[in-house]
Structure formats: C-alpha cells, structure tokens
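Contributing new records

If you add data, match the layout below exactly. Sequence lines come first and carry their own label; structure lines follow with theirs. Keep one chain per record. Anything else will be rejected by the validation script.
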Amino acid sequence: MAYAKPFPLAAPQQKAAAQPVFGPDLAVRLICPECRDPNPNIVEEFGSGDLVCGNCGLVLGDRIVDTRSEWRVRLLLVYSAMRTFFHELLDFRKR
C-alpha cells in the first residue's frame, strides 16, 4: 500500500534563511587617545561623574551614572536581616 504523501518526518526539511543575530559588540575596548596603552588604567570617579585615564589624567567621559547601590540601602538591608534573625532567635527560645 503506497501513500500519496510521504510521512512528515521522512520528507526533506527545507532550512529557512538564517537571519543575522544582532547583539552588543563585546570586543569594544576603551583606549586612551593620549597614552595609546593597550592595557589602560581607566578610573571611574563617581563623585565628579568622570571617566579618567589613570596614567595621563585625560578625561575620557563625563556624566557617568553611579550604578552601585547607595550605602544607606545596604545598611538598611543588613539591619533588616539582623532584626529578622534576632526575632527568630527570641521566638525559638520562647518555645
């Protein structure tokens, strides 16, 4: 008994044209134009918002945003964790 159409798995699959994948270029390196050092010492000064070459002092960028969490937030998280621990310890002693 012959089938008019081949089984779906037996039929040759046609590959769709692969679309190029776009993403960030991670090979980009920031090099100081003054020093031309292949391994630059670039310093982020969050107080002034500058990106500075540590070798020659050239400002490479300004208005840098500080992405680190503020110390008050970290202190609050530590305080909250300690408070929870001590409350659980007191509850355990009451049993």
